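Regression test attached.
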Amino acid sequence: MSKIHNFSAGPAILPQVAIDNSIEALKDFAETGLSLITVSHRAKEFVAVMDQAVANAKELFGIGDDYDVIFIQGGASTQFCMVPFNLLPINGKAAYLNTGTWATNAIKEAEKLGNVEVVASSEESNFNFIPKNYSIPNDAAYFHITTNNTIYGTELHEDLDVNVPLIADMSSDIYSRPVDVSKYDLIYAGAQKNIGPAGTTMVIVKKGILGKTGRNIPTMLNYETHIKKESMFNTPPVFPIFVVNETFKWLKSIGGVEEIYKLNKAKAQLLYNEIDNNPLFKGTAAVEDRSIMNVTFVLKNDSLDADFLDYCKNANISGIKGHRSVGGFRASLYNALPIESVQALVDVMQAFSQKFG
Amino acid sequence: MSKIHNFSAGPAILPQVAIDNSIEALKDFAETGLSLITVSHRAKEFVAVMDQAVANAKELFGIGDDYDVIFIQGGASTQFCMVPFNLLPINGKAAYLNTGTWATNAIKEAEKLGNVEVVASSEESNFNFIPKNYSIPNDAAYFHITTNNTIYGTELHEDLDVNVPLIADMSSDIYSRPVDVSKYDLIYAGAQKNIGPAGTTMVIVKKGILGKTGRNIPTMLNYETHIKKESMFNTPPVFPIFVVNETFKWLKSIGGVEEIYKLNKAKAQLLYNEIDNNPLFKGTAAVEDRSIMNVTFVLKNDSLDADFLDYCKNANISGIKGHRSVGGFRASLYNALPIESVQALVDVMQAFSQKFG
């Protein structure tokens, strides 16, 4: 079978070695004679996987002992309510930056629990840029950002310096570049883009920030529950966490976030260059805020959309259709996507341009 | 390698065909040329898996159109708070039966949200029986039971007829016997015993019961969120749900719950007979409440415990140690465990008895 170029926005391409090792573990996990998905999560062999996943998560970002790392369930959508449950005091205020659909959902959940101030929003321009000049109230319990906006193709390219504790949804760009974690109180990410399959969510929590809201938090929504039990309060999602750890091992093996950042920038530059130079296409995000993870673009003549999708399909390019809420095209260039796949897409865009240009 | 007899309490043994088919799907999912864990959850091939899982869940239990079936995340522990969030009105009252550790946890979560009446408890006798004579207040919004108590080896053997809506945690015995779902308003089960790997939770919800509590429910804790979006409000745990569907297909192929119930009873009878007839052992649960899923027993002389575990290990018997909170031994006989494994355990008990009796 021909190789597929997988540009899916998530669940998304993963390193082949992570998939291969997961298959081996389904056959015989750590020489237990049992499949990975039929052993107790309290077996020492799986506890070792969990411990390794946490250690690798910390090592890849240079996270010290002043942070806890947990792997839980529920996706970033559950984090949208866990953050205010754990960090927004009753009668307190939280500040949010609205940069897209997921940020909007995070805001809605926080509003269910308290006073929310949206300090800036790019909604009126269909979220095609990241707002820059805004002030955050000093009495905000925290400031919540979405570092990469999967649907709109915009990204915050550096760690912000702000006047209140910073919380980040990094679901779609975590481990794509070096991050100074010390600037954040809390970072969360659904696994299914850069770090693994769907089914687990990683949370990095600064020590000492919990237990101060005065809220009666449901046990499973309380970060302290999972921190105290090292992500084993209840049965963890064994298989997704195994694959996350294999993905971390792969990332370490190729040089970690410094190296992948170079590769990610090269991949994004290759594609944005083509978008900017090809007369048929144009990008949709403000140039300075363009994401290196999700490249959004359109055909200037959208009556050619179906033809372009056919060209892509014939070249084994998959997952290129834009999100149903915005249309056009989106190429997701997550860590595991090789630059050869980006070149294949560029080749198709050039061939398409020769035919229809 | 020798075959391991997997008596693990959960995550637990699964049908080999489900594991084999999962491995094939990790290599190439539904002829997409992509791995199961790298395709979009909105790809038609995965939507078909989700639809099949729901259809099979309904077919196996004879569930009609008056119920919805969803697959979500968070385990039964998250259900402990979702049930009262969705079904316990503000200022209302809920009734609970306390039959073990998980029932106790469910009660604690409900108490965070409202008025809870524990109508009966077997806690004083270390949960070794299921209370029978109790009355449920007519004004209770619902009555919550745990049909099988994994740690203590007790089980409710029939569907109760009660005077208020019935809610059941069936995490450890769902699909082990025919159930008259029409007697329940809501049934939930973590997957990692009878229906799949860890990482998804199935919920069966009677139509028309939601939206009546007056509560401001976090979006992800609201059953309506997941029902409306057919378990695709956010990215579902793709791999666990795939394996659940493969497990359902296997159960259908061997004759469904009627057939597995016969086999489960035969397996349990074989082991309980040995426990009752072997002079070294005794069961811990009241005879009439003995679980057919989790058989708990002890050595009358517990100084032999380590020797017995050695015997088991030498016979490739795995996962037989009792839960750390009760000690002794526990043999979990979930659907996928073949009767040959039970016979292997019985053989070991007999050999042990000849040596140490």
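Expected vs. actual: identical. Chain B has nine helices and 14 strands.
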